[in-house]
Amino acid sequence: MKNIMVKLDLKKALKKFFGFDSFKDDQERIIQDVLDGNNTFVIMPTGGGKSMCYQLPALLSEGTAIIVSPLIALMKNQVDAIRSVSDDESVAHFLNSSLTKTDAARVKSDITEGKTKLLYVAPESLTKEENILFFKGIKISFFAIDEAHCISEWGHDFRPEYRRLREIFEEITNVPIIALTATATPKVQNDIQKNLNMLDAKVYKSSFNRDNLYYQIFPKLEVEKQIIRYIRTMQGKSGIIYCLSRKKVEELAELLKVNGVNALPYHAGLDAGTRARHQDMFLMEDTDVIVATIAFGMGIDKPDVRFVIHHDIPKSLESYYQETGRAGRDGGEGECISFYSYKDVDKLEKFLQGKPVAEQEIGRQLLNEISAYAETSVCRRKMILHYFGEEFDEVNCSEMCDNCRHPKEKHEGKERILNLLEAMVTLKETQRAKHYCLFLSGANTSDIQAYKHDKMPGFGVGKDKGLVFWNAVIRQAVVAGLVSKDIESYGVLKLTKKGKEFLEKPTSFMLIKEQDYVVTDDEPIVSNSTGGVFDQVLYDQLVDLRRSLSKQKNIPPFVIFQEPSLKDMCFQYPITIEELTNVQGVGHGKATRYGAPFTALIKAYVEQNEIERPQDMVVKSVVRKSGMKVQLIQNIDRKLPLEDIGQAQGKSIDEVIEEIEQIVTSGTRVNINYYIDDILDSDSQEEIYEYFSEAKTDDLGEAYSEFDGDFSEEELRLMWIKFMSEMAN
Predict the structure, then answer these.
(1) How far, in Å, CA of 121 to CA of 493, rounded?
(2) Which fold has domain 2-205?
(3) Are strands 510-512 and 410-412 parallel, antiparallel or unpaired?
(4) What residues form DSSP beta bridges with 411?
(5) pLDDT tens for residues 692-703?
(6) 230 near 222, Cβ under 8 Å?
(7) pTM to 2 decimal places
(8) Where are the domains of the chain?
(9) Confidence of residue 728 (pLDDT cuts 50, 70, 90)
(10) What confidence score (pLDDT) does residue 619 get?
């Protein structure tokens, strides 16, 4: 009878303080455990209601609950949230380095008088001797550790100061502990419990599945354009864009603003006042989009974030899961879009250099996991949940990830899986994924030779396929449960019971063809989320117009507009000179000089075919008059040698010529005759100039072949600049 009464009382308390009629999932049992004085470990996804698990028991207990929180910037929000359910502001406080001595004294006074039920502290504040002495003299109901994954070296946001929490708690008093996190793999969970000496804790682990979130990965091509186009389809909706560097945060926020998106930057380099103001503006819906580093978001309680975009792939799958988890916390729409390329992972691996070896190994292992997730063609939801130790049938994804909505090609892979498992047996399950890929594809590297593995049976059995393919086979074998990664030994592959059974009795195994992410920003997007597709009919008409104009003006067609510019017109449909300047390789000068007939043709074509122009394809650039470019033109006007100009700007002669080519291509005249006259006589210049005047293409490779090597590539490039300056601009 007593337990029933307590449960009824908890529901009444929930209604009284928070206005809810019922608890979510395990909340009631967790709260009861805390009130009963048990150590408790809560693993609950973002939006699952973790904070309620310590807030309600704190309000119902005698004394003050000490809540350790990692980010000073967020404590105010958490305190404000609690104060909003009470008529006494003293019910919750924070104690951190942002307080003045007077403020800190008032906080301690309220605690001593028994008015404060929740005190949020940063771990650094907890370690101060004066605070430890103060805490020893007050009644503490329990300790709560929010974002407990910060304790684990395997966690995505490891903080060394979190490792000392247990010894500090023991020095202060012996009261129950509740540890809470939204992300913990089995490895991280065990690490947290061991470190806090709470292996006896009652563990509550909710499903990590957020069925309202849609997961999507794109190759990293023209990222800024894609982001702007996407946000325009989400007009007025709240979103977060994560970037790895502060510089990129600033640049992207500025670019979004120029393109009419209500966006603000947020990163640790901004002063505290600006950060707080930007955060509040986002919460109060005075701005739609926050562009941020990972410094933003931990504990942010905004339920209606409709999209989370990763401009750069995060450093771990836990980071990705937690950051995407900030979308759709109210159960409504939540789109999680990430851009990925191999290049980014290489960059992140370089950042690990110089760190202790163990830390490097952990960092690489975490990067391998996020790469595997990004590159996979299996159900993304299944892969995330597998990572967190949860089984999931992809049928239940309900097409809420790109791989389930747009399934990739499958083929029978039984023999390939057998090749892998047999190789693992041959090499005694001692190697990591990369080594097996090298072994199976027959790559005779120094590592393979050092172990004499090139002499082992099975070496090169899959040499008809490359490393990318064998990586995909390993990933799919891991997700299928045939192979496991021994995380203690930094990702060494082991056969599971299921894998051994497969070896004895092989069955059909459908392998999914995976995407190659070796891409660069230079590659054009052929189709996009708005459905824009290359318009071949318009392209043919533009080519004809260019040809007739070139005959009329007696200049080669490429002088008017180059091929990439014509192709871009077939995506953007520019109908004014101003719109034409948004086209690739078209500056204001070139648009003014040659643009009118092209925009007229496009306008007529659009009207005739009733084409709905994808205006979201047109992305304004941030006008940055590069000081370097201005200086370059000024130095050319002063007739300085190009080598000297390059040296002053820290560039090679090749880079200087490349920059001049870009300036000339976009429609600005540059006179480098003084430099050319020093390296080519007038007859040679005339010969090359005449060639360009009659050339059908601006391909310098063809020019080089035509002159049979008489002129160097550099000489031809310089003459091309002279020709384009005089004829095109």
Answers:
(1) 41
(2) Rossmann fold (3.40.50)
(3) antiparallel
(4) 511
(5) 888 777 777 777
(6) no
(7) 0.59
(8) 2-205, 213-402, 414-507, 536-617, 627-727
(9) low
(10) 62
